[in-house]
């Protein structure tokens, strides 16, 4: 005897029309999520900086999180809600973490978002290595 579809463990064949498919293709811009586009922008800035300063970029780990934790690090007197850097210690490499939601709140357009990402990465690299941000990227802050 044939079982009704609602008794099957996976019920995807609605009204006998077959398995559902996405409404748009994976190559179309609408398929990309905001977090995926943000990750791509961060990766593009890291590639650009790696071409100029590979010795600064290579030993640092980069991460993207949605929101910052509620507790600031003990060494930060004025915490920045957009990003945070962690110096290397006890075999753990230096890390720079960018927080997606606060950075997206600072920008109104895609171009502004790219500039804010660039400024955050360069500013944190400068803080990590004790340099001026203009030494790493002459366009910083423009």
From TrEMBL:
Q: Which domain of life is it from?
A: Bacteria
User: Which Pfam families does the protein's record reference?
Assistant: Zincin_1
State what protein this is by name.
Answer: Metallopeptidase family protein
Specify the species: Bifidobacterium jacchi
């Amino acid at each position: 005897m044939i079982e009704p579809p609602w008794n099957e463990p996976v019920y995807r064949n609605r009204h006998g029309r077959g398995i559902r498919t996405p409404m748009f293709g994976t190559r179309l811009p609408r398929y990309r999520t905001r977090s995926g586009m943000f990750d791509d922008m961060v990766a593009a800035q890291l590639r650009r900086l790696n071409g100029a300063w590979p010795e600064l970029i290579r030993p640092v780990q980069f991460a993207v999180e949605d929101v910052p934790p509620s507790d600031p690090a003990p060494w930060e007197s004025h915490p920045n809600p957009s990003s945070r850097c962690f110096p290397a210690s006890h075999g753990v490499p230096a890390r720079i973490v960018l927080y997606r939601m606060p950075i997206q709140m600072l920008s109104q357009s895609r171009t502004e978002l790219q500039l804010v990402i660039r400024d955050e990465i360069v500013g944190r690299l400068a803080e990590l290595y004790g340099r001026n941000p203009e030494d790493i990227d002459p366009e910083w802050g423009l």
